[in-house]
Structure formats: structure tokens, C-alpha cells
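Might you be able to review the protein record set out just below?
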Amino acid sequence: MTHHDSQLLTAAEAAHYLGLKVSTIRSLTYRRELPVVRPTGKRAVRYRLTELEALLRARSHPARTTKEVA
């Protein structure tokens, strides 16, 4: 695991990186669409940079429609 793989960001840093509002990051977290790390095992929440990059990749690809599949 490289340093880049293990880099953890706060909600504010994650929001800035993704170009989203902190409330959106919290909503994605609540809906379990964005995995979190709890470094202290308590309320503190951090986001892995690699997970944020994966979210960016997933959202940058258009969703396949039923017309494309057929």
C-alpha cells in the first residue's frame, strides 16, 4: 500500500476534492454510497483518497440505458 492509497481526508477536504458541498458528502456517507474509515473507532470519519477517486470515475461514466443494452 502506497502513501497515496492510505491518504485520509476529512469531510471538508473530500468535498473540496470532489467539488461538492460537505452536506452532500455526509448524505453520500449516510446512504453508504461513500465508504468511510473511523481511525479512532468513534465518531471521527475520514475518507480514503482512493475511494473518492473511484467515485469520481463512476460518476464520470454515463449510466447505461436499456436502449444501449438491447
Q: What stands out?
A: The first strand starts at residue 8 and ends at 9. Residues 20 and 32 are 17 Å apart (CA to CA).
